[in-house]
Design brief:
This protein is of the alpha+beta class. The protein has 2 domains: 187 residues, Rossmann fold (3-Layer(aba) Sandwich), CATH 3.40.50; 112 residues, Formyl transferase, C-terminal domain (Methionyl-tRNA Fmet Formyltransferase, Chain A, domain 2), CATH 3.10.25.10. It has 8 helices and 13 strands. The strands form 3 sheets. Strands 7, 8, 9, 10, 11, 12 and 13 form a 7-stranded antiparallel β-sheet that branches. It has a 4-stranded mixed β-sheet with strand order 3-4-5-6. Strands 1-2 form a two-stranded parallel sheet. The mean pLDDT is 94.
Length: 314
């Protein structure tokens, strides 16, 4: 059971393994603007392998649960399905339902573990496979694969790496469950943290954060909702900008006139911004309606920024 692209590597591995995949369950196709159907990669994967694809509106629909019961599955593997699974479904497979989760549980339980692991400055993360229980991401763990979070990682790059790491983890766990050798380890619920679904408003940069926190935030918000700020000028004109890459500055730049968060200094054609306990250098920035620019290209197009600052929308 899965919907997002995070599920694809593990599902593809199961489809080409010695195990019999009876069906793939995924959410219904969604229509976008102009009523065009978006490509559905999980459905397409099932069709490519001639596997039955089920797309119930809700996983709790009685008609779907009857179909699932008729299949008499030994095991349900879940990855980025996008719906809460109820007790009746969880009790249907003989060995249970097990979920691939993109964090080191119990840290970052919830819908956005990959984003939060970067956002909160974690040094490591990984993929955890656990038995699903009705409460959120709280079931016993049956396997974990760890990886370092690189200084250049975005949510996109980290998600791709975790999806590939899920392949050996999934195959190992399924074989252990089949042979009866799997060890289920209860989570330490007292150490749990939450990673709720990221909202568009989460992309706004808070210049009262440290340079390290701002860098983590920008990388965590890529590819959605993207980290954004607003350039405020003294003449009242505002320009919304997406930040793509920043770098911590070791020293206080010349031309500093105040301690206001978001203050801009253009030092030797560098675009420097004041934040808590330091400064960041903006390396790549995208003004609204424009392409991604280097700092020099941005400064060439903006003119005098002596009285400008970056801040949240007013």
């Amino acid at each position: 059971m899965g919907t997002g692209t995070f599920a694809l590597p593990a599902f593809r591995a199961l489809l080409t393994s010695e195990h019999q995949v009876q069906a793939i369950v995924t959410q219904p196709d969604r229509r976008g603007r102009g009523h065009h159907r978006h490509p559905h990669p999980v459905r397409e994967l099932g069709e490519q392998h001639n596997v039955r694809v089920l797309q119930p509106d809700k996983a709790a629909d009685p008609e779907f649960l009857d179909v699932l019961e008729d299949l008499r599955p030994d095991l349900v593997v879940v990855a980025a399905y996008g719906q809460i699974l109820k007790r009746k479904l969880l009790d249907t497979p003989r060995l249970g339902a097990f979920n691939l989760h993109g964090s080191l549980l119990p840290r970052h339980r919830g819908a956005a573990p990959v984003q939060y692991s970067i956002w909160k400055g974690d040094a490591k993360t990984g993929v955890t496979m656990f038995r699903i229980e009705p409460s959120l991401d709280s079931g016993p763990v049956v396997g974990v694969h760890e990886t370092d979070i690189l200084p250049t990682d975005t949510s996109e790059s980290l998600m791709e790496r975790l999806a590939e790491l899920s392949v050996p983890l999934t195959l190992d766990v399924v074989r252990q469950l089949e042979s009866g050798t799997a060890q289920l380890v209860p989570q330490d619920h007292s150490a749990a943290t939450l990673a709720p679904k990221v909202q568009k408003s989460d992309g706004l940069v808070d210049w009262n954060q440290t340079p390290q926190q701002i860098d983590c935030h920008i990388r965590a918000m890529w590819p959605w909702p993207k980290a954004s700020t607003v350039l405020h000028r003294s003449d009242g004109t505002d320009l919304r900008c997406i930040l793509h890459e920043v770098q911590e500055v070791d020293t206080t730049p010349d031309g500093t006139e105040s301690d206001a968060m978001g203050q801009i200094v253009t030092d030797q054609r560098q675009l420097l911004v004041r934040c808590r306990n330091g400064w960041v250098r903006i390396l790549r920035i995208q003004p609204a309606g424009s392409r991604i620019l280097s700092a020099v290209e941005f400064l060439n197009g903006q003119g005098d920024l002596a009285d400008a600052k970056f801040a949240a929308p007013e």
